[in-house]
């Protein structure tokens, strides 16, 4: 495994997204033992960056990681997120990045994760009711107190990133970025490079779609959140299959799997980018981590860059409203 720096924070080039172990996808929460083995295998393979959030579950994903990381804390660059639970008021799935809410969130995350510090603490979504300066101001205090080491933002737009960074250096922005979701290339990525902020692409496998393993949504559990995702619905889903097929063609040529090709393409976009593919299975963490060794030719990269655009939005309308572009 090779390592890169997100600003000054050293991380493995490929991280591990833990969300799907407890939340969102079919099978979440069903096999804790395999999830914990997956975390341990990731660490053996040199993965350091592990990603969670208080909203995953809510809370159960952080609790799971707390158990999995007992005795391993020093090997990990532990990242979690706040801002999607309004603790004093409306509860889960409500934006709240006010100072008091952050102070409550961080204590809960530290406790559940069984640690005295978080390495990378992200605002999960920008809160239009709290000026970003106030949010970053309180995060900066948490850095001074040693409760968090560095600060991140997720799905923030350029203006917010610039304002936040003026208050305290932002170490990383975590946003959706993959072969079929490239919206941040135009305005966000150049700004991150100007300000020397790292990029952590989430859903780098297109929520599993780019791996080519999903040919129908029939097998999804009822609560799988891809049921509502426009890219996985109706005609869009059928149209998008050709994207997965083309990734498969490049993979066959490269002697790799489609998941590895999707990750290798991201890695080829720069050494300030550390994707966090999500899985709850040992075999897949092995497959995904091995993408670090996959070298795509210029021709293969060009073919991937020229994939047809995806049909359908990346999120439901309600979720899209929370994104800043
Ligand atoms: N900041 C944000 O707002 C935000 C939003 C979404 C996600 N995230 C973070 O980003 C991480 C990754 O994103 P994601 O989990 O949404 O999407 P992803 O990494 O693109 O895809 C995960 C899905 O792909 C499957 N998968 C993984 N490796 C595979 C392989 N080699 N072959 C076939 N299928 C494979 C997983 O199933 P199995 O688990 O069954 O292997 C899971 O269903 C999350 O865990 C979370 O930490 C952040």
Short overview:
Residues 13-305 form the NADP-dependent oxidoreductase domain. This protein is of the alpha/beta class.
- Cofactors and ligands: NADP nicotinamide-adenine-dinucleotide phosphate
With strands numbered from the N-terminus, the spatial order across the biggest sheet is 3-4-5-8-9-10-11
The helix/strand class is alpha/beta
- Name the poorly predicted regions: none
Tally the structural domains: 1
Shape: globular
CATH topology: TIM Barrel
Can you tell me the CATH architecture? Alpha-Beta Barrel
Question: Would you count the extended β strands for me?
Answer: 11
Q: How many angstroms separate the termini?
A: 32 Å
Quickly list its features.
globular, 325 residues, binds NADP nicotinamide-adenine-dinucleotide phosphate, TIM Barrel, 14% strand, two-stranded antiparallel ribbon, 7-stranded parallel β-sheet, 37% helix, alpha/beta
Describe the protein.
The protein has 325 residues and is an alpha/beta fold. It has a single domain, classed as TIM Barrel (Alpha-Beta Barrel). 37% of the residues lie in helices and 14% in strands. It contains eleven helices and eleven strands. It has a seven-stranded parallel beta sheet. Strands 1-2 form a two-stranded antiparallel ribbon. A two-stranded antiparallel ribbon has the order 6-7. The radius of gyration is 18 Å and the shape is globular. The model has no long low-confidence stretch (mean pLDDT 97). The chain binds NADP nicotinamide-adenine-dinucleotide phosphate. The site of NADP nicotinamide-adenine-dinucleotide phosphate has 30 residues, from α9.
């Amino acid at each position: 495994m090779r390592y890169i720096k997100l600003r000054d924070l050293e991380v493995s080039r490929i991280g591990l997204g833990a969300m799907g172990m407890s939340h969102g996808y079919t099978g979440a929460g069903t096999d804790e033992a395999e999830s914990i083995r997956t975390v341990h295998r990731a660490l053996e393979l040199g993965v350091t960056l592990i990603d969670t959030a208080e909203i995953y579950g809510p809370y159960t994903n952080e609790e799971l990681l707390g158990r999995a990381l007992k005795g391993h804390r020093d090997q990990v660059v532990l990242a979690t997120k706040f801002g999607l639970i309004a603790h004093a008021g409306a509860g889960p799935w409500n934006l709240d990045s006010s100072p008091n809410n952050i102070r409550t969130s961080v204590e809960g995350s530290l406790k559940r994760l069984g640690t005295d510090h978080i390495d990378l603490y992200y605002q999960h979504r920008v809160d239009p009711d709290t000026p970003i300066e106030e949010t970053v101001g309180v995060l900066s205090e948490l850095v001074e107190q040693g409760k968090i080491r560095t600060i991140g933002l997720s799905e923030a737009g350029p203006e917010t990133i610039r304002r936040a960074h003026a208050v305290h250096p932002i170490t990383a922005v975590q946003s959706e970025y993959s072969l079929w979701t490239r919206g941040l290339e135009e305005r966000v990525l150049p700004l991150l490079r100007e300000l020397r902020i790292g990029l952590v692409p989430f859903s780098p496998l297109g929520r599993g779609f780019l791996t080519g393993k999903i040919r129908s949504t029939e097998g999804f559990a009822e609560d799988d959140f891809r049921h509502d995702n426009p890219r996985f619905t109706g005609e869009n889903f059928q149209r998008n299959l050709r994207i997965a097929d083309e990734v498969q063609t490049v993979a066959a040529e490269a002697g790799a799997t489609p998941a590895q090709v999707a990750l290798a393409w991201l890695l080829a976009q720069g050494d300030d980018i550390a994707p966090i593919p999500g899985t709850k299975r040992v075999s897949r963490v092995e497959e995904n981590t091995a993408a670090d060794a996959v070298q795509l030719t210029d021709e293969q990269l060009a073919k991937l860059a020229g994939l047809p655009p995806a049909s359908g939005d990346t999120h439901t309308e309600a979720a899209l409203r929370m994104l800043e572009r």
